[in-house]
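agent: user wants the structure for TraR/DksA family transcriptional regulator from Georgenia alba. delegating to structure tool.
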Amino acid sequence: MSDDAGARLRARLAEVEARLARQRRELDGLVDAARDANVDDEHDPEGATLAWERQQTATLVAHAESEREGLLAALDRLAAGTYGRCEVCHEPIPAARLEVRPAATRCVRHAG
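agent: tool returned. relaying tokens verbatim.
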């Protein structure tokens, strides 16, 4: 499982890092556009849309950063030999769960 898990984690990490880079560029563009536009978010009909877009993109960036951190932690667990074990009961996490959530730290029973 170690080689397959490592390859899967690294592939997922590469996807997340690429998505994160795109989202950060998009957020930077929105911030720059708002700065140059001199838009009054409260009174301009387009201002609310721009503020919403900035917040939406910032939220996507935060989620991608969190996923990235989880994947890096999973790679650390893999190196330590603890990847794929529930942090609560120490039983193996089902392969199907790790396939869907490669950074999972808990089995289904303890996920809640």
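agent: one observation worth passing along. The mean pLDDT is 89.
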